[in-house]
Design a protein that fits this description.
Number of helices: 11
Largest sheet: 6 strands, mixed
Number of strands: 13
Organism: Pedococcus dokdonensis
CATH architecture of the largest domain: 2-Layer Sandwich
Protein name: EDD domain protein, DegV family
Order of helices and strands: EHEEEHEHEHEHHEHHEEHEHEHE
Pfam family, one: DegV
GO molecular function, one term: lipid binding
Shape: globular
Keywords: Lipid-binding
CATH topology of the largest domain: Hypothetical Protein Tm841, Chain: A,domain 3
Structural class: alpha/beta
CATH class of the largest domain: Alpha Beta
Length: 285
């Protein structure tokens, strides 16, 4: 059986990785000032950051079921007997719902996986799924691989302000108001598919130091090697600095750290200045 892998643009996989593993990526949409764009296709993260800074209305929307059906039909036409479709947490987007609707009309069976995650925490799970598929894994085994690696991952992040999360309905208004009123710099985490406040810190420098410590703790808990992504939106220098420090914490050969810019969709909800770390333990050989 040949199993094809489909994901969505919030995995933020580098193009070289997508091409190397023949992964199909279906874009989510960003609406800026009433104009709709496809993430990773016709809008940049810099443009989204500029819109947010200038207080232009920015929102997001899921791909249509037809977009997924097109991807599934393309995979089937390319010889796939089955498809594993891995997507952003259903608690943050209805993308999974679109994938399920498309799967009902797919010419070959589709296993839709709710990663309960986003960003490279999901991206690394997609890569593991693709690697297993290339070794001849069944669709059920490939889907299980994606779920298990995603569930094992840790995502922690720092935002300059909670306002963008409040506007998008990803965090409560009371929490956002309290954070702004007290000038709190929150550390947030992804917990069972939801964004949850983890800690409250008074200054950005302390918040960034705590972000590093939480990521380092997740690294230390890994039994084998880990893959680490430092995500950012309009904060390249801080991301590079954090990546260098996390690299110093890894023993030789125990992992890899890469800097990956947050895309337009997640960026629209967290805002400029965001730093996030995804720590993804590698599956056992």
């Amino acid at each position: 059986m040949s199993v094809a892998i489909v994901t969505d643009s919030t995995a933020y996989l580098p193009a070289s990785v997508v091409d190397a593993h023949s992964i199909q990526v279906v874009p989510l949409h960003v609406i800026v000032g009433g104009t709709e764009f496809s993430e990773g296709v016709d809008i940049t993260t810099a443009e989204v950051a500029a819109a947010l800074r200038s207080f232009k209305p920015v929102s997001t929307s899921r791909p249509s079921p037809q977009s997924f059906l097109d991807a599934y039909e393309k995979a089937a036409a390319g010889g796939a007997d089955g498809i594993v479709s891995v997507h952003i947490s259903a608690d943050m987007s209805s993308t999974v719902e679109s994938a399920h609707l498309a799967a009902q009309q797919s010419p070959v069976p589709v296993r839709v996986v709710d990663s309960r995650s986003l960003g490279m925490a999901m991206g690394y799970a997609v890569v593991s799924a693709a690697e297993l598929a290339s070794r001849g894994g069944t669709a059920d085994d490939v889907a299980a691989q994606a779920r298990s690696r995603s569930e094992a991952s840790t995502v922690v992040f720092y935002v300059d302000t909670l306002e963008h999360l409040r506007r998008g309905g990803r965090i409560g208004s009371a929490s956002a108001f309290l954070g702004s009123a007290l000038a709190i710099k929150p550390i947030l985490g992804l917990v069972d598919g939801h964004i949850r406040p983890l800690e409250k810190v008074r200054t950005s420098s302390r918040a960034l130091a705590r972000l590093e410590e939480l990521a380092a703790s997740a690294i230390e808990k890994a039994d084998a090697g880990v893959d680490i992504a430092v995500h950012h939106l309009d904060s390249q220098a801080r991301a590079d600095d954090l990546a260098a420090r996390l690299t110093d914490r890894l023993a030789a050969g125990d992992g890899e750290v890469r800097v990956v810019e947050l895309g337009a969709v997640v960026g629209a909800h967290v805002g400029p200045g965001t730093l996030a770390v995804a720590v993804s333990p590698r599956p056992a050989p």
